[in-house]
Amino acid sequence: MADKAPILEVDTLISLEDAGKLLGLSAERIRVLIKEGFIDRPKPGRVVLSSVARGYARYWQEKASQETKTSADTRVRDARAAEIEQRIAEKNRRLVPAEEATAAIDHIIGACAEAFASIPAMVSRDVAERNRIEKHVKEAQRGVAKRLSEAAELLEKGGKLPDAD
To answer: What is the residue extent of each domain of the chain?
Structure first.
């Protein structure tokens, strides 16, 4: 017949070595948990069985809570760093708000449209020739307007221009 292990009551005093075996830890680690206040030690070298179980569970609960807090702190710190980098880039004009970029492009395109509109009159005095040239200029302006519209949409939604490298 096999020897039966004795049944221990929850308030049984056990040695630090037995507490370590119970949790799969060394007696030294049990001493550290006692020193940190997780496990009560009513007598030198002895601990209460229930205190070992509760203390070790509390140790892991606190550790999980600290890790959650640490990861949240890290996310907040990273977000703040990204925001600071963005503000510095804006201040140094390496990052320009979309509204400013759009206004600059509109300004340039407006000047180009005026210049293109004056080309037929500069090239010829003949009305028929001017009309022919004007037709090509307007076609070019439509192409520019189409590309400007595509760029504005990409600027708003995000993405890459089709012919950008």
So the answer is: 13-70, 97-157
